[in-house]
Every structure is written in structure tokens, then in C-alpha cells.
Design goal:
- The chain is α/β, with parallel strands linked by helices.
- The protein folds into two domains: 159 residues, Lyase, Ornithine Decarboxylase, Chain A, domain 1 (Beta Barrel); 248 residues, Alanine racemase (TIM Barrel, Alpha-Beta Barrel).
- 28% of the residues lie in helices and 25% in strands.
- Strands 4, 14, 15, 16, 17, 18, 19, 20 and 21 form a nine-stranded mixed β-sheet that branches.
- It starts with a strand and ends in a 10-residue tail after the last helix.
- The structure holds pyridoxal-5'-phosphate.
- Pyridoxal-5'-phosphate binds next to helix 10.
């Protein structure tokens, strides 16, 4: 459930008319709903009720500080994957003891930055990274809290580009190496083992792969505890999928996920950490765009929008499906036609939807891509020298721009002309 609904035929974000935002901000732009963010965070919090837990929002899904602050005010921690995200989380007021640092390649500078300013734990992805953390921490005379990311070799049954828990993926260490690596870690200076980590992929639409992976995690927890390691936290990663509108069956709800977690891991006396990204912010954001042109090809109708693949890359990158809906519901009474919905970028891949049956579109119509909150604005670029589009946040009857559209001067002046060309 989200808070983008029609009222008297007009699409609203909470209590604000989307057309009104468009008139004020100009298209294209992203809008996020505070109420939806809050609701999704609470669904997870309630689902894990009764377990000692910490919800570390995977901020790579949408990292605007207004979103981080909204979640931070509810008690959320953050899962960061770079020094940049760490700085952003700190800047949004997230306490460092609620930040976990994930990611397959951390630079020595990033490790140092985080150790200087505080961290909940490093999620370590390789033996070589473990050595880097050990050497930086011991040179600083400090202890780095770590969990080691296990690759449980389960099939997440999701798009290949976002499956991360199979043996052939670059993530984590193989389960078969876990005991040895933990034994090595325990002897390393500067290393404080606090738990075990895994994350098997994104946009999972059933619980079975999670349950398989968590079962392996439960077994490993008992073995490592018997080996004498202090395993007090289990980081389960993120990955719970959302309905985009094209799937056969609805993905499981956080409540069902929570029940399964309690069943498989509840008896281990460990604090549970989860790192949801998409499920918190995916349906809390839409992308609003207007129709520039309608073009009828030989056997195709093209609807050309002012948004493009540089603004929302998911269809081009993951063959992702997004519902595209009119801002004015009266348009839903128009006859249906079949469109390829595309952007203006010079790539055939700049296609949002192929052969999509929609109510007839006309120039200047406003449309919204639903479920565009996660992996939308954060993956945008200035390809074709198209300015990054604004982000807007709604809270009841108020809205505010939370990232403004840069001016062309700001973009162009970043280039530096070398002396010899002047
Ligand atoms: C991407 C990622 C997440 C979040 O995944 P979602 O599918 O957005 O929930 C969590 N943890 C790690 C380590 C990730 O890389």
C-alpha cells in the first residue's frame, strides 16, 4: 500500500496534487511520500517485534538525506556501501553506532574514516579485506567490530543482475571456508568478531530462498559459537521484493518474513539485523514525466517522454516493469492504444515499456511511473547532458524540493579546460 491515490480524478501524493507539484517544479521529477516510508519501516519493526533487532535501511536504494532523516527519526540505522554513503548518513544525523558498512571492496581510506568516526560493524567480504581492516585498526590502536559475509550458495530466484548469494557471485566467502576464516579472524590484531552477515539478492518474491539461507546461517551460528566465537548479531541482509505490477503472485509481506525469521533464528539468542532497501522506499516514490511527442511508426506507436533512461535506468538495466499511469484519471476513459514508451536519449535501450496497452496519450499529458522510489534517483546520471531531475518529498499537505534541478552552468562548469587548450 502506498499514498499515491486518485481524488476526484486527480493523482495525489498524500494530500498534495501531483499536477500542482509538476506546475511548481517542472517535469520530470521524483516525489516521495513520507507516510509510505514510515508505514514500511513500521511494518518491519512490527514484524520483528519480540526479537532484539536493528533495522539498517540499505540507503543505496534512495539516499537523499530527507529520506534518511525521516527513517532516522523512527530509529532506523543505515547499511552503507561506501565512504560517501557513510558521510551522507552521518550528515543526516544517523548515529555511527547504528551504521553497518557493507560492500565488496572497501578502500583503506574508507576503513580509516569509519574507524575514526565510529561504526556498528564492518560486513567483511573476503579474507584479504579482513587483513586490510586488521592492519588499519591496529595501526590506529583500535578494534574494528566485524561480521563476515557468508555466501550460502542459494538461488534467490530473481533477476541475474541482482542475485548475490550463488557460489559464482562475487559476494562473501564460501560457507565451506567460514570456520577457517573465523578462526583466522579471531587471531588478527584489531579485529573484534561480533556476528555473521549474509545478503542473497534483491527483489525476492518468495520466502523459500531466504529460509534456506537462514537455515544455513543458523547451523553456522551454532558451530561458530561452539568454536568459541562471540556471535551476538546476525545480519540477514535485505532483498524482500515489492509488487511492481507484472508478477504472477504478490511477494510475501514483512509480517510473514518476520515469522519465518523468528522460526529459523529466534532460538539463537542473537540480535537480528536486517537491511531492507527496496521494500522501504520502492513504493514510496513515483517518477512524474510529461509526454513530449506522439509518433506513429510503421507498426508501432511511440510515446516520447521528457524522462529518459538516465533518470530511471531500471527498465534498461534489469528489464524492469513499472506501471505507467495518467495523472488525470479522466484520461483513463480514452480508448486504449498500444505504445512503446520511450525517452529522448540516443539509445534504443532508452525504452521504458514495450507494447504497453494504455489509454490514448496526447502531447503534454502527465504520467507517473509507480514504484520508482528505489534504485531510481540514485542511479540517475547526466548522460546526454541532461540535468539530474529534482526530488520532492510530500508530508501530508506539504511538499518540499529535497534535491533541486542543477543549472546548466553548474553542470558545464565542472569541466576543466587544460592550459594548452586555452
Ligand atoms: C542492496 C543491498 C541491500 C538492500 O537490498 P534491497 O533489495 O533493496 O532490500 C541490503 N544489503 C546489502 C549488502 C545490499 O547490497
Amino acid at each position: 500500500m502506498d499514498h499515491f491515490n486518485y481524488r476526484n480524478g486527480h493523482l495525489y501524493a498524500e494530500d498534495v496534487s501531483v499536477a500542482e507539484i509538476a506546475a511548481s517544479v517542472g517535469t520530470p521529477f521524483y516525489v516521495y511520500s513520507t507516510a509510505t516510508l514510515v508505514r514500511h519501516f513500521k511494518l518491519f519493526d512490527d514484524a520483528l517485534d519480540g526479537l532484539d533487532h536493528c533495522i539498517c535501511y540499505a540507503m543505496k536504494a534512495a539516499s537523499n538525506q530527507a529520506i534518511l532523516k525521516t527513517l532516522g527519526n523512527l530509529g532506523a540505522g543505515m547499511d552503507v556501501v561506501s565512504g560517501g554513503e557513510y558521510r551522507r548518513a552521518i550528515s543526516a544525523g544517523i548515529p555511527s553506532e547504528k551504521i553497518v558498512f557493507s560492500g565488496v571492496g572497501k578502500t583503506l581510506e574508507e576503513i580509516k574514516l569509519v574507524l575514526q568516526n565510529g561504526i556498528r560493524q564492518f560486513n567483511v567480504e573476503s579474507e584479504s579485506e579482513l587483513k586490510h581492516i586488521s592492519s588499519v585498526a591496529s595501526s590506529m590502536n583500535t578494534l574494528a567490530p566485524i561480521a563476515i559475509r557468508i555466501n550460502p550458495d542459494v538461488d534467490a530466484q530473481t533477476h541475474e543482475k541482482i542475485a548475490t548469494g550463488k557460489a559464482e557471485n562475487k559476494f562473501g566467502i564460501p560457507l565451506s571456508r567460514a570456520r577457517d576464516v573465523y578462526a583466522d579472524a579471531a587471531k588478527m590484531p584489531g579485529i573484534d568478531i561480533v556476528g555473521i552477515d549474509l545478503h542473497i539478492g534483491s527483489q525476492l518474491t518468495n520466502l523459500e530462498p531466504f529460509e534456506k539461507a537462514y537455515q544455513k546461517l543458523a547451523d553456522l551460528t551454532q558451530i561458530l559459537k561452539q568454536d568459541g566465537h562471540k556471535i551476538t548479531r546476525l545480519d540477514l541482509g535485505g532483498g524482500l521484493g515489492i509488487p511492481y505490477g507484472s508478477e504472477q503472485s504478490a511477494p510475501p509481506l514483512p509480517l510473514e518474513y518476520g515469522k519465518m525469521v523468528k522460526k529459523v533464528l529466534g532460538h539463537l539468542d542473537c540480535e537480528i539485523e536486517i537491511e531492507p532497501g527496496r521494500l522501504i522506499v520502492g513504493n514510496a516514490g513515483i517518477l512524474v514525466s510529461s509526454v513530449l511527442c506522439i509518433k506513429s511508426g510503421e507498426n508501432r506507436n511511440f510515446a516520447i517522454l521528457d524522462a529518459a533512461m538516465n533518470d530511471l535506468i531500471r527498465p534498461a538495466m534489469y528489464e524492469a516493469y513499472h506501471d505507467i499511469v495518467p495523472i488525470e484519471q479522466q484520461n483513463a476513459s480514452r480508448a486504449e492504444k498500444v505504445y512503446d514508451v520511450v525517452g529522448p536519449v540516443c539509445e534504443t535501450g532508452d525504452t521504458f515499456a514495450k507494447e504497453r496497452r494504455m489509454n490514448e496519450l496526447f502531447e503534454n499529458d502527465l504520467v507517473a511511473f509507480r514504484s520508482a522510489g528505489a534504485y531510481g534517483a540514485v542511479m540517475s546520471s547526466e548522460y546526454n547532458t541532461r540535468p539530474l531531475i529534482p526530488e520532492v518529498m510530500v508530508n501530508k499537505d506539504r511538499f518540499s524540493i529535497i534535491r533541486k534541478r542543477p543549472s546548466y552552468t553548474e553542470i558545464i562548469d565542472r569541466d576543466i579546460i587544460p592550459e594548452w587548450l586555452k
